[in-house]
GNAT family N-acetyltransferase (Agromyces luteolus), 213 residues
Amino acid sequence: MSRPDAVAGEAVIRPYREDDRPGVADVCLRTAAAGGDATGVYSDDGLMPEVYALPYVEYAPDLAFVVELDGRVAGYVLGIADTGDFIDWYAREWAPGFRERHPVAGPPTGHRPAYTEAQLVADGAGPERLRIPELDDYPAHLHIDLLPELQGRGLGRRLIDTLRAALAERGVAALHLGIDPANVGARAFYERLGFHELRSSRPDAPRFGIATR
Ligand SMILES: CC(C)(COP(=O)(O)OP(=O)(O)OC[C@H]1O[C@@H](n2cnc3c(N)ncnc32)[C@H](O)[C@@H]1OP(=O)(O)O)[C@@H](O)C(=O)NCCC(=O)NCCS
């Protein structure tokens, strides 16, 4: 008998577990170059996950959902219900360790990403960039990533629906997200799902929002 949540072959959406942590970090790295593989782009492959994935599962494991494929993590959506509270937590609990591990950008790798390692290290060092003007109306935010073999099969839509439902259940009215301006596929995806561009969105830092129901 097939499982009710099984789609796209063996891909299954389920709640995050503590032992998913390395898998989540790996998916983050492999989708971090404007949606493509960022392995080797920065001097430390751990940097991207340390900024964009691991603090999320550390702070809100109950709002993280993974896609499991053949026993490994191949995608996720990571949510934060109250970005203001997350900013306070990040500054207090996450940023000090991050700054200790990554006091400065590492040596050049031969890649020249538009999002430089200096910028990435600066973004990891503190959370104030997350304090967008629309936080009162769009308090939640998310990150979503799927490995290439799972893209274009409806799982992104299902992950967003899963997180929106979990947020709505907690009484959170709306969420926002930021995208890399080079990630045209992600932009098309969010627009297709009904996200709208926020007032504070800029060409170099696009931002979108949507109600949770
Ligand atoms: C962006 C991403 C999460 C989308 O998930 P997905 O599973 O590929 O998208 P889905 O198959 O659920 O698509 C949902 C809808 O969006 C549309 N869509 C998705 N990607 C699209 C694209 N690149 N261009 C146009 N439309 C697109 C689909 O056609 C679909 O429309 P429909 O439901 O009306 O048929 C996924 O492709 C991904 O992880 N990409 C790499 C990492 C990344 O860019 N993450 C986002 C960072 S902000």
